[in-house]
Amino acid sequence: MQVAIDGPASAGKSTVAKIVAKNLNFIYIDTGAMYRACTLIAQKGNVDYGDEAEILKLLAKNKIEFKNGEKEQKVFINGQDVSLAIRTPEITANVSQVSALPGIREKMVELQRKMAGENNVIMDGRDIGTTVLPNADVKIFLIASVASRAKRRFLDFKEKGIHQDLAEIEHDIEERDYKDSHRKISPLKKATDAIELDTTNLTIDEVVAKITTLIEKKQKKQSKE
């Protein structure tokens, strides 16, 4: 079974997708983390974030993996834990540029579809329901106000020891929204058959419950067919 969760930055996609996947024993695929890992690989290789050919060369030498940690899934590049390194302001500011490169998207989508073809998966990102898994069984589009998303990111950063001003985070999110929705390749947009959920005034548990209900309804329907 394939579940696609899309939406803008910090709408709660990754947080709820991880919990729902764990509860239903699905595999969680964090596509945003994959693009962030690509951006980190470019940074460490001293390659311009717009140089598609050079980034693809680096990707051929670097293996991106997900592994389950004690509390959460970790991201590794060539066996090194980069879960915190991919969340720094530098990577956040440049991931949109890297993820908009056609060759990079093609490479990542190929990997994502391979994973989805082998397991029950929950995948979150910007274009899962429209491009990566257009035939997903359940499609959800999460939205939330910029202010609430900035506050979530601020608290998340604080917990991880990353210090960034709240107003600066708000500005970054607004910029990211614009970049993601205006890029030529797979822009951020709601799939026509996706269910929209506004998480501005909902707790994590409430969002998890709503998404779980949608998935279980679909599972029951499929088992009867």
From TrEMBL:
Q: Might you report a single GO cellular component term? A: cytosol
Q: Which domain of life is it from?
A: Bacteria
Q: Where does the record place it? A: Cytoplasm
Q: Which reaction does it catalyse?
A: CMP + ATP = CDP + ADP; dCMP + ATP = dCDP + ADP
The protein's name = Cytidylate kinase
Residues where ATP binds: G7, P8, A9, S10, A11, G12, K13, S14, T15
What family does the database annotate?
Belongs to the cytidylate kinase family. Type 1 subfamily.
Swiss-Prot/TrEMBL GO biological process terms: nucleobase-containing small molecule interconversion; pyrimidine nucleotide metabolic process
The protein's matches in InterPro entries, at most eight in alphabetical order, are given as: Cytidylate_kin (IPR003136), Cytidylate_kinase_dom (IPR011994), P-loop_NTPase (IPR027417)
Tell whether Kinase is among the UniProt keywords.
Answer: yes
Task: Show where the Cytidylate kinase domain sits.
Answer: 3-216
Q: What is its EC number?
A: 2.7.4.25
**Which UniProt keywords are given for this protein, alphabetically ordered?**
ATP-binding, Cytoplasm, Kinase, Nucleotide-binding, Transferase
PANTHER family on file: CYTIDYLATE KINASE, CYTIDYLATE KINASE/PANTOATE-BETA-ALANINE LIGASE
Which organism's genome codes for this protein? Lactobacillus rodentium
- A single GO molecular function, which one? CMP kinase activity
Task: Tell me yes or no: is tRNA-binding among this UniProt entry's keywords.
Answer: no
This protein's major location comes to cytoplasm
* Pfam families cross-referenced by the UniProt entry: Cytidylate_kin
The record's SUPFAM superfamilies line, in alphabetical order, gives: P-loop containing nucleoside triphosphate hydrolases
Query: Which residue ranges does UniProt annotate as crossing the membrane?
Result: none
